[in-house]
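Components:
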Amino acid sequence: MKQKKFLLQEKDIPTQWYNIQADMPTKPLPPLNPTTREPMSAEDLSRIFSAECSKQELDCTNAWIDIPEEVRDKYSYYRSTPLVRAYALEEALDTPAHIYFKNESTNPLGSHKINSAIPQCYYCKQEGDTNVTTETGAGQWGAALSYAASIYGLSAAVYQVKISMQQKPYRSSIMRTFGATVEGSPSMSTRAGKDIITREPNHLGSLGTAISEAIELATTTPHCKYTLGSVLNHVALHQTVIGLEAEKQMEMAGEYPDKVIACFGGGSNFGGLAFPFMRHNILEGKKTEFIAAEPESCPKLTRGKFEYDFGDEAGYTPLLPMYTLGHDFKPANIHAGGLRYHGAGMIISQLIRDNYMHGVDIPQLESFEAGMLFARTEGIIPAPESCHAIAATIREALRAKEAGKQENILFCLSGHGLIDMTAYDSYINGDLHNYAVSDSEIKSNLSAVPDIKI
Ligand SMILES: *Cc1c(COP(=O)(O)O)cnc(C)c1O
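Structure:
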C-alpha cells in the first residue's frame, strides 16, 4: 500500500508563526489613515484591532513570532492537519505530476479560518475586551470567530453578506449555536448599512458592506474589537501554521514542491501555505512557483490596479496599498462567497510586484468541474473556494503531462463543501454560469479609488 497521509504529532505543531515581512526585499508600503492620509502606527490601528494584532500587522523586523502556549493548546484540538498525496486524482488525470494537498478541512468548522480566529480572540481577551465583531461572506470566518469567541467567553456580533446568508442558511445556524448574533448586511442597524440600502434598496451585500458595518459597531461600542478573517498581514501570519507543518510533512514524503497553489479571496490560506516555502525562494534562491487562484468574476490579481484603496465599501478602514478592483466593486453572485473580495492585501500585492508569485483566473464552471473530479477521486467534497485551487492544480498537472515532466504540486484544501451542497446541486442541474468582467467595467469601477500617488 502506498503511503497517502503524512501526519505530525501534537508536539510538532509549530511554536512560532513565520512573518514574511521581515524577509521581504521590498517592504509593503504603510497603511494610511483614511482621513488624514498619514501613515498609521500600531497604536492607531489598535483603536479597531487588538493591540497585539496591530503590532504584528506592522512588524517588518521579527521573522518569527511566538505562538502563545494557550493558543497552541487550542490548536492541538484539531491540529496538526494531514498532508495527503492525491494518488487517485493523479491517476484520473494520468499525469506524471505528484499532487499533494494540505487538508485544512478536517476540523469540525471545516476551514482554515479557525487558525486566526483563535489567536485574535485570545489577544482580545488578554487585553480586557468583552466583545468582538466581524463580517463574514460564506460564513466560514463568522463560524470560526463565533467558536473562538465562545471558548474565551467573548460576545460576538457577525454581519453576514446578505446573499451568502440566503445561499448558506446553515452557516448562520452554526454561528448562533456558538452564541453569536448574526445580521444580514447591508442592515438597518448601522449608519453605513442604512446609507447603502437608501442608495440601493436591493443591494445583496458584499464583504465590503459587511466590513463597514462591523467596524462601525466596533468603534461605537466600548471594549469591542473588530476582527478580520483575511486580507491583513497578521491574519496571514497566523495561517503560516499551515505551511510550516506542510514543510515538515513534505520532508517526510521525501519531496519538495515545484509549485504551490491556493485559492485567493484576501490571501490568508494562500499566504499561510505559501509564505514558509517562499522564504526559501527569497533567502536561498529556490525556484518554487507560487500560484494564487482567483475567480474570473473577481480578478483583482490579474486585472486590478496597484493603488491605495479602502478595504470596505463605506471607506472606514485604513487605506491599503494593494491590487484592487475598487472598494465598491460588486462581484457576481458566485458560490465561492469567500473569494468575492475586491482587494488583495499589502504583502501579496508587493510580492506580485516583485515577481515572487502570480494569479490565475478560474471560471466558475471550471472550478466546480474540478471540485466534482476531486470529490469522485479523493472522496472529499471541497468548498467552492477550494475548487479554484483544485482547478489551477489540474491545469498544472495536465500541463506537466503534455510536457512529459514529473513535478511536485502542493495545494491547499482550504475547506470542505458540506454546507455548500445547494451550490453543487445547481452545478449538477446545469444552472450555474460563468461571469466574466469587462475591461470597461473594471475601468469605470477603479475611478472611485482615491487619488493617492504611489
Ligand atoms: C474564506 C475562505 C477562503 C478565502 O479566504 P483567503 O483569506 O483568501 O484564504 C478560501 N477558502 C475557504 C474554505 C474559506 O472559508
